Amino acid sequence: MVAEMLRRQGGLKGRIADAFVPLRAFPAYRRFLTARLVSQSGSSMAPIALAFAVLQIGGGAGALGSVLAVSLVPQMGSSCWSEAPSRTGTRVAGS
User: DSSP secondary structure string, 76-88?
Assistant: First the structure.
């Protein structure tokens, strides 16, 4: 049944090709997506590098846990502040 629907809608190949049209058609979007991928990769690697650094200087499990917990504070704080205007009912300019 699903295969039949895909054949009627142009097949899976056509749908996958359509998903990549913005990457081919808009160079600015391609640059944005590449930059986003590089940024997310770096953000994902930072805690791992931090863990290795703490362990290399002789810190134990407690020190590692403390450092990783403290490294989460800016992420949690930024997510709380980005939601604050919508919860308090104040409007942000342009929204």
Answer: HHHHHHHHHHHHH
